[in-house]
Write a structure and sequence with these properties.
The complex is a heterodimer. Chain A is of the alpha/beta class. Helix content of chain A is 27%, strand content 25%. Chain A is built from 6 helices and 13 strands. The radius of gyration of chain A is 21 Å and the shape is globular. Chain B is globular. Helices cover 36% and strands 20% of the residues of chain B. Among the domains of chain B are: 102-219, Uridine Diphospho-n-acetylenolpyruvylglucosamine Reductase, domain 3, CATH 3.30.465; 223-333, Alpha-Beta Plaits (2-Layer Sandwich), CATH 3.30.70.2190; 340-427, 2-Layer Sandwich (Alpha-Beta Plaits). The chains are: A alpha/beta, B alpha+beta. The structure holds flavin-adenine dinucleotide (FAD).
Amino acid sequence: MNIIVCIKQVPGSNKAEVDPVTGVLKRDGNDTKMNPYDLYAVETAVRLKEQSGGKVSVITMGPPSAESVIREAFAMGADEGFILTDRKFAGADVLATSYTISQGIKMAGEYDLILCGKQTTDGDTAQVGPEISEYLNIPCIANVTSIEEIGDKGLTVLMDMQTAIEKCFIEYPCLVSVDKDIFLPRLPSYVKMKASKDQKINFITYEDLPDKDETKVGLNGSPTKVQRIFPPSVNDKRELFSGTAEEMTETVLTKLKENKFI
Amino acid sequence: MSYKAFEKTDYENLLKIINDDERVLYGEEINEEYSHDELGGTHSVPDAVVKALTTEEVSAVMKYAYDNVIPVTVRGSGTGLVGACVPVMGGIVLDMSGMNKVLELDEENLTITVEPGMLLMELAAYVEENGFFYPPDPGEKTATIGGNISTNAGGMRAVKYGVTRDYVRGLTVVLPNGEVLNLGGKVVKNSSGFDLKNLIVGSEGLLAVITKCVLKLMPLPKKTVSLLIPFKSLHAAIETVPKIIRSKAIPTAVEFMEREVIKDSETYLGTAFPDKSGDAYLILKFDGNSKQEIESLYDNVASICLENGAMDVLISDTDERDESIWKPRGSFLEAIKSSTTYMDEVDIVVPRNRIAEVVKYCMEISEQIKIRIKSFGHAGDGNLHIYILKDDLSDTEWEKRMKAAMKLLYEKARELGGKVSGEHGIGFAKREYLHESSHKTEMELMRGIKAVFDPKNILNPGKIV
Ligand SMILES: Cc1cc2nc3c(=O)[nH]c(=O)nc-3n(C[C@H](O)[C@H](O)[C@H](O)COP(=O)(O)OP(=O)(O)OC[C@H]3O[C@@H](n4cnc5c(N)ncnc54)[C@H](O)[C@@H]3O)c2cc1C
């Protein structure tokens, strides 16, 4: 099975800081990592390869420095890497991003399955995966919590519908975005890192795209206009109850009822 | 020494000193927690508990206890493992957990002054927010700084940064007779007579009550990277440690662990460990200011491990990955505890190139005495945590086999030039083994020092000496 995994480089710290004056997300260019949700997708891909053979390719859109997440995927067992990088791609929203990545995927060769993480820790939209599938005109299932069967024609998976778990069959070629905890991601291997040290990575620029349409990439291709970025408000209101276990249970119960939580 | 029997009038007098009936507990009001520590092998209920808030209160309580010859046992969070905070002679327990404030962060002298009841995790978070670093990192983060100082707590960064003692600059203490004394200070050097501050460090509440601590800080390293290194056998893993140390690389931590213990922690935490390939593992941690700097530090070490039979070297360089390996490591004690009916521990320290011998010896003893023994620990500093497990042995059989195993282990430590306790202290539980392992004169000197500080033997009697 040939699998392509979409991965992204995100800020290394989970504490996103917004500059209160300019409203811009503070980024420390040196402190980056692979989007934690994508680790589950890479892990899933490598496990599928271990079970049924084939090849795992990873693809990312980002600055040239995003090479580091590709190298990290090699250290986890990926075989091939693609980076979509061009000034023209900068400022892309979900739509432009999905379009650009879908173009890159068309250049990455034959595939049976595309895997994505559920969402990113910096963008948080969870939309890029499903939109890529639209551009590629292939079926898609999001929030997959388990792969039940790897068939000749497609996969049987469990999809989390919040109130129910649905078991579905999806035919190749298809796109699946996996939920957190589908598998525990392995740690990158030093041995694999050394072995893939000189491995070539395929850089793809705007000029290489099969469908060169400037109105669909980068800022130009982005209908979303960000007005303001601000940190979510944190509620640190706390109340301390004291007393015996029974008394405190009673107080908590009354509070929960008062606030209509139960 | 005979003590005054604690009476209701003593309670009333203490209440007058503290003047707050929520902070002086007597009889029924005393929670069962106060009668034991975390391991729970030593039990004894105090007559009264005083929750102190100031040095003056501590001083007044001590003076009262001194005048009336009532035993006083100081308690931090009670996370100790040798019964050190248990009032084995009854009397007063002085609960320090309410004295938990930061008094001063001195950025020019790189020191922080805190009250002794501050929890280690609160201190670590506070200094890190301000860009500083308090290196001592014992496993139990809810322990108090006072408890850490009193046991000279070690932990997982000792290989590079040393132990709690290395970070104590000054102490304010209350002597058994109530007198208040400042020892050491913000100074970096000190050559002014006997180092009394360092006598207090590690004295398990026998010499004085610590009421204020001046601690040394370091700049916060910007990045850390951990390596999880699977080996086919525990032997292969441990044998590699001296080679790592000899390579002059300075990891902050070198820990070893076995598959079996990892499995216990998976069951205990309900989460999976990120690797299953090895029967034993080393975890190494490096710190520095950038990924590149750290990579250059561990490159050679990784090669050494691979040359010595490591199956791979797995890299943990993000918070999520660190959590997947360090959270299990942090749970081992509790995990082993929950895998059996009862256990006792040995925390010997040996020169670090001898640690493989001890680990091998544990396996031999386990077979010979027919008792389950598990171990893990700080391979990089020679300190092991060895747990002897009761499982379904009868009480008498347990007592017999456990004692036999302990005796052999302490003998082995002595033979290898080691010590009874690398961390956790002596307290009540390890007294007998300290006495057996130490020179007579050494014990006499310790008793002499105790008598000079505490002529009436009211502070934490029944411990260490
Ligand atoms: C899961 C777990 C992991 C642990 N890991 C480590 C580890 O890695 N390294 C390590 O060294 N220890 C470790 N410990 C042991 C324990 O946490 C330490 O011994 C700790 O320092 C005890 O602090 P405490 O506040 O709980 O003190 P307590 O247990 O309350 O008291 C310990 C001793 O300190 C004295 N004391 C406390 N406060 C004062 C004071 N203000 N003045 C005078 N005397 C005082 C008490 O009288 C007593 O003798 C671990 C324990 C657990 C449960």
